[in-house]
Amino acid sequence: MGTVPVYRWRLAPDGLATRRQLRALGLRPGGQDVAAQVERPRRRREPLVAYLYRVEQAKPVRPMTPAKWAALAKANAARRICPECRRDAGYVIPPSLGMCTPCAYPQAQNAA
What we know:
Strand order of the largest sheet: 1-4-5-2
Shape: elongated
Number of helices: 4
Largest sheet: 4 strands, mixed
Oligomer: single chain
Distance between the termini: 62 Å
């Protein structure tokens, strides 16, 4: 891959979009190479970089199959089960705690 054009923030030409912009249009890059990049300057740090893809070469997003929906539901349900008490917490358990709030802070439950 050769060098790609670099544009300043908000100065990219029409017909180019980031992955998020493509997704909002219901598209995906579809295997195409990066067409350009946008750099957003920051103070005392490296600039933020976003890669741009050609909209006319983008392909439609693949639809979710019933098996993919089922796998996603199973994965999300597993994130809600507390490993300590084995109950559904009703929310996604934070990785910082590693367990539901009542198991992480049992003294707070007794004080109330």
